[in-house]
Amino acid sequence: MTDESAPDGGEALSEGLSERLSTGKLLLGFVIAGVLLYLLVVVAGWRRVISALQGADYTWVWIACASTIVGLAAWGKAWQIVLAVLDIKVEFKRLVVTYFAATFANYVTPLGQAGGEPFIAYILSRDTEASYEDSLASVVTADLLNLLPFFNFAALGLSYLLLQASLPDNAKTLAQGLVVLAFGVPALAYAGWRFRERVQDLVLGLARPFTSRTNRITVDGIRTRIERFYASLERIAAEPRELLFALVFSYTGWIFFALPLYFAGRSLGLPLGLLLVLFIVPASTLAGLTPTPGGLAGVEAALVVLIVGLAPITTGSAVAATLIYRFASYWFVLVIGGLAALFVIMRS
Fold first, then answer.
1. Cβ(145)–Cβ(131) under 8 Å?
2. Cα(250)–Cα(262) distance, rounded to whole angstroms?
3. Residue among 74, 92, 232, 98 nearest 149 (CA)
4. Which of 95, 102, 116, 334 is the most buried (most CB within 10 A)?
Protein backbone atom coordinates (compact mmCIF):
# COMPACT_ATOMS: atom_id res chain seq x y z
CA MET A 1 0.00 0.00 0.00
CA THR A 2 1.18 3.51 -0.70
CA ASP A 3 1.58 6.28 1.86
CA GLU A 4 -1.47 8.47 2.32
CA SER A 5 0.67 11.55 1.82
CA ALA A 6 1.99 10.28 -1.49
CA PRO A 7 0.53 11.67 -4.72
CA ASP A 8 -2.17 9.64 -6.43
CA GLY A 9 -1.97 8.28 -9.98
CA GLY A 10 -2.99 11.49 -11.74
CA GLU A 11 -0.73 13.71 -9.63
CA ALA A 12 2.14 11.25 -10.01
CA LEU A 13 1.78 11.20 -13.79
CA SER A 14 1.49 14.99 -13.96
CA GLU A 15 4.51 15.52 -11.69
CA GLY A 16 6.53 12.87 -13.51
CA LEU A 17 5.80 14.35 -16.91
CA SER A 18 6.62 17.86 -15.73
CA GLU A 19 9.91 16.67 -14.29
CA ARG A 20 10.91 14.79 -17.41
CA LEU A 21 9.87 17.49 -19.88
CA SER A 22 10.81 20.67 -18.03
CA THR A 23 14.34 20.98 -19.38
CA GLY A 24 13.34 21.65 -22.97
CA LYS A 25 14.91 18.40 -24.16
CA LEU A 26 11.56 17.29 -25.52
CA LEU A 27 11.24 20.20 -27.94
CA LEU A 28 14.88 19.98 -28.94
CA GLY A 29 14.55 16.24 -29.52
CA PHE A 30 11.54 16.64 -31.80
CA VAL A 31 13.22 19.46 -33.74
CA ILE A 32 16.36 17.41 -34.32
CA ALA A 33 14.30 14.34 -35.26
CA GLY A 34 12.20 16.45 -37.66
CA VAL A 35 15.30 17.73 -39.42
CA LEU A 36 16.74 14.22 -39.72
CA LEU A 37 13.46 12.84 -41.06
CA TYR A 38 13.33 15.67 -43.58
CA LEU A 39 16.83 14.80 -44.77
CA LEU A 40 15.87 11.12 -45.00
CA VAL A 41 12.93 11.92 -47.24
CA VAL A 42 15.01 14.34 -49.33
CA VAL A 43 17.67 11.70 -49.92
CA ALA A 44 15.02 9.19 -50.97
CA GLY A 45 13.34 11.75 -53.21
CA TRP A 46 10.25 13.73 -52.24
CA ARG A 47 8.35 12.87 -55.38
CA ARG A 48 9.00 9.15 -55.09
CA VAL A 49 7.90 9.05 -51.45
CA ILE A 50 4.78 11.16 -52.01
CA SER A 51 3.86 9.17 -55.11
CA ALA A 52 4.11 5.93 -53.11
CA LEU A 53 2.01 7.32 -50.26
CA GLN A 54 -0.66 8.63 -52.64
CA GLY A 55 -1.09 5.14 -54.07
CA ALA A 56 -1.40 3.48 -50.66
CA ASP A 57 -4.46 1.49 -49.61
CA TYR A 58 -5.24 3.22 -46.31
CA THR A 59 -7.49 0.42 -45.13
CA TRP A 60 -4.28 -1.46 -44.31
CA VAL A 61 -2.94 1.61 -42.49
CA TRP A 62 -5.84 1.58 -40.04
CA ILE A 63 -5.50 -2.18 -39.66
CA ALA A 64 -1.87 -1.52 -38.74
CA CYS A 65 -2.98 1.01 -36.11
CA ALA A 66 -5.44 -1.48 -34.65
CA SER A 67 -2.70 -4.13 -34.57
CA THR A 68 -0.46 -1.83 -32.54
CA ILE A 69 -3.21 -1.20 -29.99
CA VAL A 70 -3.85 -4.93 -29.64
CA GLY A 71 -0.13 -5.53 -29.14
CA LEU A 72 0.18 -2.94 -26.39
CA ALA A 73 -2.98 -4.19 -24.72
CA ALA A 74 -1.54 -7.72 -24.72
CA TRP A 75 1.56 -6.47 -22.93
CA GLY A 76 -0.71 -4.71 -20.46
CA LYS A 77 -2.47 -8.03 -19.85
CA ALA A 78 0.88 -9.69 -19.16
CA TRP A 79 1.50 -7.04 -16.50
CA GLN A 80 -1.89 -7.71 -14.95
CA ILE A 81 -1.01 -11.41 -14.60
CA VAL A 82 2.33 -10.61 -12.98
CA LEU A 83 0.68 -8.16 -10.57
CA ALA A 84 -1.90 -10.81 -9.66
CA VAL A 85 0.96 -13.08 -8.54
CA LEU A 86 1.78 -10.35 -6.01
CA ASP A 87 -1.87 -10.40 -4.83
CA ILE A 88 -2.52 -7.03 -6.50
CA LYS A 89 -5.85 -7.15 -8.26
CA VAL A 90 -6.33 -4.44 -10.88
CA GLU A 91 -9.12 -4.34 -13.44
CA PHE A 92 -7.73 -4.77 -16.93
CA LYS A 93 -9.55 -1.73 -18.30
CA ARG A 94 -7.98 0.41 -15.57
CA LEU A 95 -4.50 -1.06 -15.88
CA VAL A 96 -4.37 -0.81 -19.67
CA VAL A 97 -5.19 2.91 -19.48
CA THR A 98 -2.38 3.38 -16.96
CA TYR A 99 -0.05 1.40 -19.23
CA PHE A 100 -0.91 3.54 -22.27
CA ALA A 101 -0.37 6.70 -20.21
CA ALA A 102 3.05 5.50 -19.06
CA THR A 103 3.90 4.45 -22.63
CA PHE A 104 3.06 7.98 -23.76
CA ALA A 105 5.46 9.39 -21.17
CA ASN A 106 8.22 7.12 -22.44
CA TYR A 107 7.49 7.88 -26.09
CA VAL A 108 7.83 11.63 -25.71
CA THR A 109 11.10 11.67 -23.76
CA PRO A 110 14.60 11.03 -25.13
CA LEU A 111 15.85 7.56 -24.22
CA GLY A 112 12.53 6.94 -22.46
CA GLN A 113 12.48 3.33 -23.56
CA ALA A 114 15.99 2.79 -22.25
CA GLY A 115 15.21 3.77 -18.67
CA GLY A 116 11.49 4.12 -18.27
CA GLU A 117 10.87 1.18 -15.92
CA PRO A 118 11.24 3.15 -12.65
CA PHE A 119 8.90 5.84 -13.98
CA ILE A 120 6.27 3.34 -15.11
CA ALA A 121 6.53 1.57 -11.74
CA TYR A 122 6.01 4.92 -10.03
CA ILE A 123 2.83 5.57 -12.01
CA LEU A 124 1.56 2.05 -11.37
CA SER A 125 2.21 2.32 -7.65
CA ARG A 126 0.26 5.58 -7.41
CA ASP A 127 -2.58 4.49 -9.65
CA THR A 128 -3.07 1.05 -8.09
CA GLU A 129 -2.77 -0.57 -4.67
CA ALA A 130 0.72 -1.83 -5.45
CA SER A 131 3.77 -0.68 -3.53
CA TYR A 132 6.57 0.85 -5.56
CA GLU A 133 8.75 -2.23 -5.02
CA ASP A 134 6.00 -4.58 -6.20
CA SER A 135 5.31 -2.32 -9.18
CA LEU A 136 8.98 -2.20 -10.16
CA ALA A 137 9.31 -5.97 -9.77
CA SER A 138 6.26 -6.49 -12.00
CA VAL A 139 7.63 -4.05 -14.60
CA VAL A 140 11.06 -5.70 -14.65
CA THR A 141 9.51 -9.17 -14.87
CA ALA A 142 7.20 -8.14 -17.70
CA ASP A 143 10.12 -6.58 -19.59
CA LEU A 144 12.18 -9.74 -19.19
CA LEU A 145 9.25 -11.82 -20.42
CA ASN A 146 8.94 -9.54 -23.45
CA LEU A 147 12.61 -10.10 -24.28
CA LEU A 148 12.11 -13.81 -24.94
CA PRO A 149 9.73 -13.39 -27.90
CA PHE A 150 11.78 -10.38 -29.03
CA PHE A 151 14.85 -12.55 -29.51
CA ASN A 152 12.92 -15.61 -30.68
CA PHE A 153 11.22 -13.70 -33.49
CA ALA A 154 14.47 -11.97 -34.41
CA ALA A 155 16.26 -15.34 -34.52
CA LEU A 156 13.48 -16.83 -36.64
CA GLY A 157 13.66 -14.00 -39.15
CA LEU A 158 17.45 -14.01 -39.15
CA SER A 159 17.54 -17.77 -39.78
CA TYR A 160 15.20 -17.30 -42.73
CA LEU A 161 17.44 -14.59 -44.17
CA LEU A 162 20.60 -16.64 -43.73
CA LEU A 163 18.97 -19.56 -45.57
CA GLN A 164 17.94 -17.27 -48.42
CA ALA A 165 21.14 -15.29 -48.85
CA SER A 166 23.94 -13.60 -46.96
CA LEU A 167 23.16 -10.46 -44.99
CA PRO A 168 24.39 -7.12 -46.33
CA ASP A 169 27.04 -5.35 -44.26
CA ASN A 170 24.64 -2.70 -42.95
CA ALA A 171 22.30 -5.40 -41.65
CA LYS A 172 25.11 -7.45 -40.10
CA THR A 173 25.79 -4.75 -37.52
CA LEU A 174 22.20 -4.81 -36.27
CA ALA A 175 22.16 -8.61 -36.37
CA GLN A 176 25.31 -8.67 -34.24
CA GLY A 177 23.66 -6.23 -31.84
CA LEU A 178 20.73 -8.62 -31.47
CA VAL A 179 23.11 -11.49 -30.71
CA VAL A 180 24.90 -9.43 -28.07
CA LEU A 181 21.60 -8.49 -26.44
CA ALA A 182 20.31 -12.07 -26.68
CA PHE A 183 23.17 -13.24 -24.47
CA GLY A 184 24.02 -10.05 -22.61
CA VAL A 185 20.64 -9.10 -21.16
CA PRO A 186 19.84 -12.54 -19.69
CA ALA A 187 23.41 -12.68 -18.33
CA LEU A 188 23.01 -9.31 -16.63
CA ALA A 189 19.61 -10.31 -15.24
CA TYR A 190 21.03 -13.55 -13.85
CA ALA A 191 24.03 -11.73 -12.36
CA GLY A 192 21.73 -9.17 -10.76
CA TRP A 193 19.76 -11.99 -9.17
CA ARG A 194 22.63 -14.30 -8.30
CA PHE A 195 24.76 -11.57 -6.75
CA ARG A 196 21.97 -9.42 -5.35
CA GLU A 197 23.85 -8.74 -2.12
CA ARG A 198 26.70 -7.21 -4.10
CA VAL A 199 24.21 -5.24 -6.17
CA GLN A 200 22.68 -3.92 -2.97
CA ASP A 201 26.10 -2.94 -1.62
CA LEU A 202 26.91 -1.19 -4.89
CA VAL A 203 23.65 0.78 -4.90
CA LEU A 204 24.05 1.76 -1.26
CA GLY A 205 27.64 2.83 -1.89
CA LEU A 206 26.54 5.07 -4.76
CA ALA A 207 23.68 6.49 -2.70
CA ARG A 208 25.63 7.38 0.45
CA PRO A 209 27.05 10.67 -0.90
CA PHE A 210 23.49 11.82 -1.66
CA THR A 211 21.95 10.63 1.61
CA SER A 212 24.53 12.64 3.55
CA ARG A 213 23.28 15.83 1.90
CA THR A 214 19.54 15.42 2.40
CA ASN A 215 17.07 14.11 4.95
CA ARG A 216 14.57 12.98 2.30
CA ILE A 217 16.34 9.68 1.62
CA THR A 218 18.31 7.41 3.92
CA VAL A 219 20.60 4.43 3.46
CA ASP A 220 18.27 2.27 5.58
CA GLY A 221 15.29 3.33 3.49
CA ILE A 222 17.05 2.43 0.25
CA ARG A 223 18.17 -0.91 1.73
CA THR A 224 14.57 -1.69 2.71
CA ARG A 225 13.30 -0.88 -0.78
CA ILE A 226 15.93 -3.12 -2.40
CA GLU A 227 15.06 -6.00 -0.07
CA ARG A 228 11.35 -5.58 -0.81
CA PHE A 229 12.09 -5.49 -4.54
CA TYR A 230 14.00 -8.78 -4.47
CA ALA A 231 11.33 -10.30 -2.22
CA SER A 232 8.72 -9.39 -4.83
CA LEU A 233 10.82 -10.99 -7.56
CA GLU A 234 11.07 -14.18 -5.49
CA ARG A 235 7.28 -14.29 -5.12
CA ILE A 236 6.86 -13.87 -8.87
CA ALA A 237 9.47 -16.52 -9.69
CA ALA A 238 7.65 -18.97 -7.40
CA GLU A 239 4.68 -19.04 -9.80
CA PRO A 240 6.03 -20.52 -13.08
CA ARG A 241 2.55 -21.39 -14.40
CA GLU A 242 1.41 -17.79 -14.11
CA LEU A 243 4.62 -16.60 -15.74
CA LEU A 244 4.01 -18.99 -18.62
CA PHE A 245 0.50 -17.58 -18.99
CA ALA A 246 1.93 -14.06 -19.04
CA LEU A 247 4.50 -15.17 -21.61
CA VAL A 248 1.67 -16.11 -23.99
CA PHE A 249 0.53 -12.49 -23.94
CA SER A 250 4.12 -11.31 -24.36
CA TYR A 251 4.39 -13.32 -27.57
CA THR A 252 0.99 -12.08 -28.69
CA GLY A 253 2.06 -8.50 -28.04
CA TRP A 254 5.19 -8.84 -30.14
CA ILE A 255 3.33 -10.43 -33.04
CA PHE A 256 0.80 -7.62 -33.19
CA PHE A 257 3.52 -4.99 -32.70
CA ALA A 258 5.50 -6.37 -35.68
CA LEU A 259 2.53 -6.86 -37.98
CA PRO A 260 2.05 -3.11 -38.73
CA LEU A 261 5.20 -3.19 -40.88
CA TYR A 262 3.73 -6.11 -42.83
CA PHE A 263 0.46 -4.19 -43.19
CA ALA A 264 2.41 -1.12 -44.32
CA GLY A 265 3.91 -3.25 -47.07
CA ARG A 266 0.47 -4.52 -48.03
CA SER A 267 -0.87 -0.97 -48.22
CA LEU A 268 1.84 -0.10 -50.75
CA GLY A 269 1.92 -3.44 -52.55
CA LEU A 270 5.49 -4.17 -51.42
CA PRO A 271 7.01 -7.65 -50.93
CA LEU A 272 7.52 -7.48 -47.16
CA GLY A 273 7.04 -11.06 -45.95
CA LEU A 274 6.13 -11.99 -42.39
CA LEU A 275 9.44 -13.69 -41.63
CA LEU A 276 11.33 -10.70 -42.99
CA VAL A 277 9.27 -8.39 -40.81
CA LEU A 278 10.00 -10.53 -37.73
CA PHE A 279 13.69 -9.73 -38.17
CA ILE A 280 13.42 -6.09 -39.28
CA VAL A 281 11.20 -4.86 -36.43
CA PRO A 282 13.38 -6.19 -33.55
CA ALA A 283 16.56 -5.12 -35.36
CA SER A 284 15.26 -1.59 -35.92
CA THR A 285 14.21 -1.40 -32.27
CA LEU A 286 17.90 -1.23 -31.35
CA ALA A 287 17.96 2.19 -33.04
CA GLY A 288 15.39 3.29 -30.46
CA LEU A 289 18.37 4.13 -28.25
CA THR A 290 18.82 7.24 -30.39
CA PRO A 291 18.58 10.24 -28.00
CA THR A 292 15.40 11.58 -29.59
CA PRO A 293 11.77 11.08 -28.48
CA GLY A 294 10.80 7.49 -29.21
CA GLY A 295 14.01 6.98 -31.19
CA LEU A 296 12.63 9.26 -33.92
CA ALA A 297 14.80 9.39 -37.04
CA GLY A 298 17.06 6.63 -35.72
CA VAL A 299 14.39 3.94 -36.02
CA GLU A 300 13.24 5.29 -39.39
CA ALA A 301 16.78 5.29 -40.77
CA ALA A 302 17.39 1.74 -39.56
CA LEU A 303 14.11 0.56 -41.09
CA VAL A 304 14.94 2.07 -44.47
CA VAL A 305 18.43 0.56 -44.47
CA LEU A 306 17.10 -2.88 -43.55
CA ILE A 307 14.21 -2.83 -46.00
CA VAL A 308 16.36 -1.71 -48.93
CA GLY A 309 19.13 -4.13 -48.02
CA LEU A 310 16.93 -7.19 -47.48
CA ALA A 311 14.08 -6.79 -49.95
CA PRO A 312 13.80 -5.83 -53.63
CA ILE A 313 12.35 -2.43 -52.72
CA THR A 314 13.48 1.03 -53.82
CA THR A 315 14.54 3.65 -51.31
CA GLY A 316 11.50 5.83 -51.98
CA SER A 317 9.10 2.95 -51.37
CA ALA A 318 11.05 1.88 -48.29
CA VAL A 319 10.75 5.38 -46.81
CA ALA A 320 7.01 5.40 -47.55
CA ALA A 321 6.55 2.02 -45.84
CA THR A 322 8.61 3.24 -42.89
CA LEU A 323 6.52 6.38 -42.49
CA ILE A 324 3.31 4.34 -42.50
CA TYR A 325 4.72 1.87 -39.98
CA ARG A 326 5.89 4.62 -37.65
CA PHE A 327 2.55 6.38 -37.96
CA ALA A 328 0.86 3.21 -36.73
CA SER A 329 3.43 2.20 -34.10
CA TYR A 330 4.51 5.63 -32.81
CA TRP A 331 2.40 8.66 -33.75
CA PHE A 332 -0.92 6.88 -33.34
CA VAL A 333 0.23 5.58 -29.95
CA LEU A 334 1.18 9.14 -28.95
CA VAL A 335 -2.39 10.27 -29.57
CA ILE A 336 -3.99 7.33 -27.75
CA GLY A 337 -1.42 7.45 -24.95
CA GLY A 338 -1.85 11.20 -24.57
CA LEU A 339 -5.60 10.77 -24.14
CA ALA A 340 -4.93 8.00 -21.62
CA ALA A 341 -2.57 10.28 -19.70
CA LEU A 342 -5.24 13.00 -19.53
CA PHE A 343 -7.76 10.40 -18.34
CA VAL A 344 -5.43 9.14 -15.60
CA ILE A 345 -4.93 12.72 -14.40
CA MET A 346 -8.65 13.55 -14.51
CA ARG A 347 -9.95 10.36 -12.91
CA SER A 348 -7.95 11.09 -9.80
1. no
2. 19
3. 74
4. 102
